[in-house]
Amino acid sequence: MWFCGLQAAESGNIEDFGRLFQAEPSRLRVRDSKGRAAAHQAAARNKLNILQFIDAHGGDLNIKDHVGNTPLHVAVEHESLEAVDYLLQRGVDTGVLNDKKQAPIHLATELNKVSVLEVMAKHKSKIDIQQGGEHGRTSLHLAAITDHEECARILDIAAITDHGECARILDIAPITDHEECARILLLKPTNWFQITEFGACPRKPCNNGYYPIHEAAKNASSRTMEVFLQWGESRGCPREEMISFYDSEGNVPLHSAVHGGDIKAVELCLKSGAKISTQQHDLSTPVHLACAQGAIDIVKLMFGMQPAEKASCLASCDAQRMTPLHCAAMFDHPEIVEYLVQEVRLDAPLDDDIGADINLLDKEKRPPLLLAASRAGWRTVHTLIRLGANIQLKDVNQRNVLHLIIMNGGRLEEFADGVVKTQSKMSLLQLLNEKDNMGCSPLHYASREGHIRSLENLIRLGACINLKNNNNESPLHFAARYGRYNTVRQLLDSEKGTFIINESDGEGLTPLHISSQQGHTRVVQLLLNRGALLHRDHNGRNPLHLAAMSGYTQTMELLHSVHSHLLDQVDKDGNTGLHLATMENKPNAIDLLLSMDCKLLYNYLDMSAIDYAIYYKFPEAALAMVTHEERGKEVMALKSNKHPCVTLALIASMPKVFEAVQDKCITKANCKKDSKSFYIKYSFTCLQSPSMYAQMDEKTGEAIVISKPIPLPALNVSLYH
């Protein structure tokens, strides 16, 4: 029954609607599932009589539905012209924005409702033509985006006649290329002086700093662009001036047109006087942008229409000192690269050599060849080599093209074939052993990345496999560090494999040390099988020490199974693997070493492993030692000048760990609790005093003065913690 009023409003049956209203006046506020009231339904169906009735009886003509639309929004959407006219006559709020930030004027423009705009133009004094919607876009922006040229012209009538300015609403038309909207927005001006006086010019930006003409160019709205340019000319603003407007990013319309990729918009800009050498804030020209996008047709069009600008454009550098050739190379557009280098030169007069400089360097000292290689643009790399690019050049990191090809996964054999065919084999060989500023050769990077085919080709071409970098690391060290099993095998299978297997780096680390330190068990196994020697590094540490420090238990087990004598070896400071694993807080490694029956030794500072766990307050390391199934009691019995009683030290510094020790002292019978044989056995061994007891700091548990034994000292100390 409540919805009968909505149905009557929709059908325009004034008699039924009036009768229902008399029976229940609140029916004017009844809504459907979309939140639309009777006023919305009448506006949608252009039922003027219902709207008049609602208005006469105090109904709300600005009521919103669930998405923020008023009856005027709905009338615009359904192109209910009489309803639009009536609502505007009655002075409804034309500035209401719906949930999409659209006022009725924005909605009419975006939907290209030309007839609606013509009606709204009659009531221009009641409409804020300058109102911004989403992102501050006015109607002219929307007309430009959608190419609604007539909308733009109509909006201009409203803007000039009533407001005297080129309403920011005009900013919406360019986005959709609604050229009809644009025409309506821009139609029938007064004179340029009047427009300027009131600020009515197309240089009204949205919140993002874009002008309508830029939106039109960016969105390939060439028809709306023509409307803007004609509009400006009719008001004394030359095309050359309008086509030179800068947006917030320093783009002129030609930049925006190239971004949009519409060759018609680009051609229109060029015919209107836009210069292809114009630079934006980052100093890039439209030619830079077209080359980066791979738009070869646009590049040819620009050079064809403005041949006098070729030379300056080709030599022009952006903020990164990149030329258009750099831009094409960076994004792997070989067709444009070849055109810029060759075709442009061929098209030039005989006395001109206008082709792009193929070896010009950017800010990081990269010619187009190195830039393409760094971005994995292999088609461009091969094109540039064929065109004679200098392969000896290096970038700011002293890397040559071979470094970059290998680092980025290129195919060395294809590169080598291209160089040999178009240049010379000698020029290729000169690259093989060159070092970058890190001292790394191409072979170092092939080893690091595990590029087997590149590695094979480098070795085949004669690359030196034992070159050292600035850290005295060879390619084999790199392969061992990054776990490149096949690379290690390939290097060891080379002629000098037996000579490099035990080479040490700047820290005295051999490949076996490094692979053990990184936990690469397969590589460790390979090196052991090939006869790698058990050298010590500059700290006196063996591979097992390093594996323990890193916590790699599988590697530790492998090393111990082959060389069990490594277990209790000490480094220059007297530290065993157990010491080092504790210092690095590696509980799994600690547990394994204890299970391997390692000795509980003291280092040259008279410190045991448990002393370091307590000193550094590593609960994980301490817990692994004192709760070990087989060695826990042995660890608890250790004494040192630092901690003469492990029990008291644990209570003082890590009471939670000592709780775990006490829990281990509880033994329960292996039977049901209600059995007569059930028992719980408590051992107080951990609370008993050692035979010689040192007076201890009650807070830290550290020794102060040697004294006589004190019974159950742990109970006394626990009172303070």
TrEMBL record:
SMART domains: ANK. InterPro entries: Ankyrin_rpt, Ankyrin_rpt-contain_sf. Gene3D superfamilies: Ankyrin repeat-containing domain. Keywords: ANK repeat, Repeat. It comes from the Eukaryota. Pfam families: Ank, Ank_2. ANK repeats lie at residues 34-66, 67-99, 249-281, 438-470, 471-503, 507-539, 539-559. SUPFAM superfamilies: Ankyrin repeat. PANTHER family: ANKYRIN REPEAT AND PROTEIN KINASE DOMAIN-CONTAINING PROTEIN (PTHR24198), ANKYRIN REPEAT-CONTAINING PROTEIN-RELATED (PTHR24198:SF165). This is Transient receptor potential cation channel subfamily A member 1. It comes from Timema shepardi.
